[in-house]
Amino acid sequence: MKTLITPLQVLRLAFGDGEQLPPQTVAEADIAGAEQRHIVPVVGQALYEKLLAGAYPEFRDGYLAAPAALFTRLAVQPRLDIRTGQCGTSAPKTAYGQPAAETALRTLRRSLRAQARTLLRRAAEHLRTHRNEFPEYDPENDILNRCTTDGGFVQIH
User: Fold this and answer.
1) With 0-12 CB in 10 A as exposed, 13-18 as middle and 19+ as buried, what is 27?
2) What global pTM score does this model have?
3) For residue 3, which of 63, 64, 58, 44 has the smallest C-alpha distance?
4) Selection from 124, 131, 133, 107 nearest residue 38 by Cα
5) Nearest CA to 124 among 112, 140, 109?
6) Beta bridge mates, 156
7) pLDDT tens by residue, 56-65
8) For the chain, where are the E strands, in sequence order?
9) What long-range pairs does 138-141 form, CB within 8 A, spacing at least 24?
10) How many Cβ atoms are within 10 Å of 68's Cβ, its own excluded?
11) 26, 76 Cβ separation under 8 angstroms
């Protein structure tokens, strides 16, 4: 499965230095799902396929890697907060720590989503201002040119 970033890049870009997680924490399917849900509606399928083929590496690394990593973390985070085993689903609790409260989890998700959306808007703005460099980009298909949500308000453009 081809994706714009690797699981190691997700761990490096979306998790802090103190958050030590094994590389198998993030699967390529997690990344592919996040990219299909959040990145493709902005850049379009034609540009996405070119990016997967290796075109425009500066744009991919400088503008899309971070939001793709953050959206992937957003998708994976609930799985990290609970464990599923032979006895069902449970929240990890040890002598060194206990599960975060729902308020803290909600705040983390909001923060991740806001940061990822901001960085994705930055990428979309770069595409719009440099359209001649990206012939595959069609602003008519960019979802951010039609609809955005800011501060809980849906804005139709």
Assistant:
1) middle
2) 0.85
3) 64
4) 124
5) 140
6) 147
7) 999 999 999 9
8) 83-85, 88-90, 147-150, 153-156
9) 138/44, 138/46, 141/44
10) 27
11) yes
